[in-house]
Design a protein that fits this description.
This protein is 48% helix and 10% strand. With 296 residues, it is an alpha/beta fold.
Amino acid sequence: MESLRGIIPIVVTTFREDGSLDLESQRRLIRHLLTQNVHGLALFGNASEGYALTHSEREELLALTLEEVQGNVPVIASTGHNGTHAAVELSRAAEKAGADALMVLPPFYVKPDGQGIYDYFAAISHAVHLPIMVQDAPLMTQVPMPAALLARMSNELEHVRYVKVEAPPTAPKITELLQLTKGKITLFGGLNGNFLIEELDRGAVGTMPGSDLCAPFQRVWNAYQGGDRAGARREFQRMLPLIRYELQPGLGVSVMKLNLKARGIIDCAAVRPPTKAVDSIGVKEVEELREELALA
């Protein structure tokens, strides 16, 4: 597999009103994302409501995604868990099923110290042969991972090759990580692409937003890669109000699904508890933002 780069959305998981999986909408969503020329797909992250999925559902969704993708783009499976043994098992299962890479959160129910975090990722790295992306997301996990620790893992653990930097301020941390690893580590941004331009300026190779803004994110990416930084900034600023709205803790997934449903890509905007749904006033706010962006 070539190195990951570019716009790799976190694929939302589609449900019916009763909370069961809507596999037909899931297929349509994946096909839609592929038509947006995304550079990969990521499953079971926060925007996928991976925390609300059963083990069998994860298996079913990964198999469905791989069937639709047919190897045309890499598929990344999130396999972090609050227990090391469980994370190893999930990681091995994803590898066996055909995932191309793993995205792994640290344990956060019982928060480990630095050595505990290292040992957790070491166990996963020793158990698989896939590249591992460490998800550095302390706003969600309350588990800080200093740049020195991430650099140590990159230097010493064979399969730790990527970090998704979601620890604000993200841009300076990208600079620090590249300096500490002498450019060895490959870095992505997150936080729904909120600091994409600054992260690219510092050496990040892409970002991992939600599923509803891939076309505008691709326009930003293409302009930047083509040397038109000013054009990239203009495109980015157009979608910034919606990015900002989606960054509200607990509500972003619901907003993404509302946008996808409004465009006829998925049938239902339902989320699973404990994920929150946007209220009736919020629905109108999202509709206004969507119209301003011409997201149709």
